[in-house]
Specification:
- This protein is of the alpha/beta class.
- The protein has one domain: Rossmann fold, CATH 3.40.50.1820.
- The chain is 40% helix and 16% strand.
- The protein contains 11 helices and 7 strands.
- Strands 1-3-2-4-5-6-7 form a 7-stranded mixed beta sheet, sandwiched between helices.
- Helix 4 packs across helix 5.
- The radius of gyration is 17 Å and the shape is globular.
C-alpha cells in the first residue's frame, strides 16, 4: 500500500534540495512571492504543508512536530532526497529542529526566518490562553499579525492574512501545534549541534529580536550567524520577498 504523504508545492529542478516549513498562521503558499527570485536551475524547493494545513488540510494526525518530522522524512524519501537543507518560518523554526534531531545525517544546512528557538516561546499559562483564544477568533489573529509586524502595515493586510490562516488551517490542527512551539523546550537536545545555521530577523519584529536570537540560536549552534532584514517585521516573505530570497540563496550557495 502506498504511504500517504503531506501536500506540498514544488518549485525548480536543480540539484540542491531545500524544504521549507511555514509558521503557525501560514501554509506552503506563504513562500509564493519568493518564487520569481529563486534560482530554479540550482535548487529544487519544496514548500511543505503540515497535517491540517493547506494541501494537507484533510490529513488527520496528532499535530505534533515529531509527527511533522516523520512526514518530512517520508516526503524526502518519496522525492529521492538523501540530503537536503531546511528553512523554517516562525513556529517552523521549532519544526525544522525536530527534523534535524530525527535525521541529523541528512540535513545540510538550516535557515530560520523570524524563527522560534528550540526553547519555544516560553509562554506562561496566561499568554498561552490568549493565543488559544485565536483559534475561533479571526480578529485576534489579525491583532497578533499586526503586532508582530510592528503595527506599521495596512490593517487590511493583517486581516487578510488572518482570514487566510483560518481558511487554510483546521481549528484542531491550529490548536494542536500551539503548545509544541509556545511552551516546549528541546534546547538541551540541540545545544552544540554543528549544523550550519543562518538566522534572518526583521528589524520591526518585536518578539524574535537580535537579543533573543543571540541568547538562543547563536548560543546553541556554534556555526550560526544572524542577519537583520530591513523594512520587515515577522513576515519578511510578504514584506520583503525579493530581499529574503536573495539573502537565503546567497547563504545556501556558500555550501
Amino acid at each position: 500500500m502506498t504511504q500517504a504523504l503531506n501536500g506540498y508545492l514544488e518549485v525548480g529542478h536543480g540539484p540542491r534540495k531545500v524544504l521549507a516549513m511555514s509558521g503557525w498562521f501560514g501554509s506552503a503558499d506563504d513562500w509564493r512571492a519568493l518564487v520569481p527570485a529563486l534560482d530554479t536551475d540550482a535548487f529544487t524547493y519544496v514548500f511543505f504543508d503540515y497535517r491540517g494545513y493547506g494541501r494537507s488540510r484533510e490529513r488527520d494526525g496528532a499535530f505534533t512536530f515529531d509527527e511533522a518530522a516523520r512526514d518530512v522524512l517520508a516526503l524526502a524519501d518519496h522525492l529521492g532526497w538523501d540530503k537536503f537543507s531546511l528553512i523554517g518560518h516562525s513556529m517552523g523554526g521549532v519544526a525544522i529542529q525536530h527534523v534535524l534531531l530525527a535525521a541529523p545525517e541528512r540535513i545540510e544546512r538550516m535557515a530560520g526566518v523570524c524563527a522560534v528557538p528550540a526553547c519555544g516561546s516560553r509562554m506562561d499559562e496566561t499568554r498561552l490562553a490568549a493565543f488559544r483564544a485565536t483559534v475561533d477568533d479571526v480578529e485576534r489573529r489579525a491583532a497578533i499579525i499586526g503586532f508582530s509586524t510592528g503595527n506599521r502595515l495596512a490593517p487590511r493586510w493583517s486581516a487578510h492574512l488572518a482570514h487566510e490562516s483560518q481558511r487554510l488551517s483546521r481549528a484542531d490542527a491550529f490548536a494542536g501545534y500551539l503548545p509544541h512551539w509556545a511552551a516546549n523546550d528541546i534546547s538541551a537536545r540541540v545545544e552544540g549541534n554543528a549544523t550550519p545555521v543562518k538566522l534572518f530577523i526583521g528589524e520591526h519584529d518585536p518578539t524574535i529580536t537580535a537579543d533573543l536570537t543571540s541568547r538562543t540560536w547563536l548560543a546553541w549552534y556554534p556555526h550560526s550567524t544572524l542577519e537583520t532584514l530591513g523594512n520587515a517585521g515577522h513576515y519578511p516573505m510578504y514584506e520583503v520577498p525579493l530581499a529574503l530570497a536573495t539573502a537565503l540563496e546567497n547563504w545556501l550557495k556558500e555550501a
